[in-house]
Amino acid sequence: MGVGRWVSLLLAFGCLFGVLDASAGDADPLYRNCVVQCEKTGNIGDHAIQHCKFSFTDVPLNGSWYMQKPLYLQWKQLNCRSDCRYYCMMQSEYQREKLGLGPAKYHGKWPFKRVFVFQEPLSAVLSAFNLLMHFIGWLTFFILVSYKLPLRPQSRRTYYEDFDLTEKLDYSSAVAVLGYSLILSLLRIFNVKDEASRVMFAAPILAFVTTHILYLNFYEMDYGWNMKVCLVMGVSQILMWVIWGGVTRHPSRFKLWTAMLGCALAMLLEIYDFPPFHGYVDAHALWHATTIPLTYLWWSFIKDDAKFRTSTLVKKVK
């Protein structure tokens, strides 16, 4: 590919990133003032926040260890802040609807209606199915390489109520998983075997991912920048796998291409997202739905690739 094509590709990504916006709802002074007053008084209008109605004098001196301060109080304060943010968000969205305005994002997420303790109930359910597919895929892969193939391998990561901590863990873990999968993709695509070369491939990516996570957690939670970083790592992996499958003429390349095409289409749901329908179903929830069959397809390719590599090594030995 010539330099001109690479420049065009980078310009295309630049235009793509231009459509990404950071949160706007939590920047509203009315919303911020509502949260501050709620945490101080424990009330939003006539609505009392139960978790904010707690004082130090309410803790019994001879109570159990989990009732003693500061552990229990800190947990109550986290629930208080989470509830204040939620009810202030609902109040703000009610006012916006009366003014004829559309929904706004708060802390990087659309306003969802809670179901029990789940802020994004549908995403939580679909995530559980996704996890199940990963577990089944890993288990079948483990059985394959451990008991069915002739060669043995050498020994050598919420949608609960949002807190500051859970929010940071959510974004940090997503970046970490993308960085780890990028390293594995490079090692497999370029068939890197010796330890020194693996370190040379992994070290720059580990350094960047670590720096990015530290930036999000201790400097600024920049949702727009984080989306750009995740997109670059995700798109780069899709392109590498598609090109590699064609160049090597892998026997399961059509399965690989189908999985990568599905990932690319699912990624559009993360870029061009839309507010939750009736407060429950948004683009992110649909993205979780698409990852369930894609996860099955991806693990199927991994097992096919393990069989292919094993047969290649056996032929070389013979």
From TrEMBL:
It is found in: Endomembrane system; Golgi apparatus membrane. The keyword Membrane applies. One of its GO terms (molecular function) is hydrolase activity, acting on ester bonds. Keywords: Golgi apparatus, GPI-anchor biosynthesis, Membrane, Signal, Transmembrane, Transmembrane helix. Residues 1-22 form the signal peptide. Pfam families: Per1. GO terms for biological process: GPI anchor biosynthetic process. This is Post-GPI attachment to proteins factor 3. Involved in the lipid remodeling steps of GPI-anchor maturation. PANTHER family: PER1-RELATED, POST-GPI ATTACHMENT TO PROTEINS FACTOR 3. The chain crosses the membrane at residues 122-149, 169-187, 199-219, 225-244, 256-272, 284-302. It comes from Musa balbisiana (Banana). Belongs to the PGAP3 family. The keyword Transmembrane helix applies. It is a multi-pass membrane protein. It comes from the Eukaryota. One of its GO terms (cellular component) is Golgi membrane.
